[in-house]
Write a structure and sequence with these properties.
Mean pLDDT: 89
Bound molecules: heme C
CATH superfamily of the domain at 33-131: Oxygen-evolving enhancer protein 3 (PsbQ), four-helix up-down bundle
Radius of gyration: 23 Å
Helix content: 40-55%
CATH class of the domain at 33-131: Mainly Alpha
Number of strands: 2
Distance between the termini: 53 Å
Low-confidence stretches: 1-17
Structural class: mainly alpha
Largest sheet: 2 strands, antiparallel
Shape: globular
């Protein structure tokens, strides 16, 4: 966005001379939806690895991060391009309860229910992609660990 910034010239011509330049208004960085989603992808992967390792504090952390990522989606992208449905409506409907259910399994350290909850969340991610006409973006349980420099086992 541009705004006009005017400097009054020399005193003698102050009444008439105003030198105007175009200066950019300060821009606030807003992450693109695809960028937030790339972070969500990482957190979704780490959540699985943490759950598989029985590292419940790390799983709880990744759940918080996922929640914050979805808050950012609602804040920065309440609607998206010409999608027929809006993230601000879809997230409360599809995601919020799934995250709460998963948090419960993490609190109870229940590995079996964690796996069920994880698959349910993954299904909700994909349902949203389909609803927004991005169904070609499909997520799944990670097949391997892409983070060789992070310890997923619980701290000794
Ligand atoms: C509000 C609906 C919605 C939800 C919920 C959602 N996504 Fe997305 N996701 C999108 C949209 C829309 C795009 C395409 C964004 C764009 O235009 O770049 C996308 C893109 C992606 C991409 C592709 C990113 C890239 O650039 O390669 C991944 C990966 C992804 N989402 C993962 C997830 C995961 C994991 C979850 C669940 C934890 C999730 N998404 C939940 C709407 C959603």
């Amino acid at each position: 966005m541009w705004k006009w910034v005017c400097h009054i010239g020399a005193l003698v011509v102050a009444a008439s001379a105003a030198a105007c330049t175009r200066a950019p208004a300060p821009e606030v960085y807003a992450p693109g939806l695809g960028e937030v989603m790339t972070l969500q992808q990482m957190r979704h992967t780490k959540l699985w690895l943490a759950g598989q390792a029985g590292n419940w504090p790390l799983a709880a952390y990744e759940l918080d991060e996922l929640g914050e990522g979805f808050d950012d989606v609602i804040k920065f992208h309440p609607t998206h391009k010409d999608s027929p449905v809006a993230p601000k409506d879809l997230i409360p409907r599809m995601i919020t309860q799934r995250l709460a259910d998963l948090r419960d399994t993490v609190t109870k350290e229940d590995r079996d229910r964690f796996v069920q909850g994880y698959d349910a969340l993954t299904g909700a991610c994909n349902n949203c992609h389909q609803a927004m006409n991005f169904g070609f973006n499909r997520v799944q349980r990670p097949e391997s660990n892409p983070y060789p420099n992070q310890a997923f086992a619980p701290a000794p």
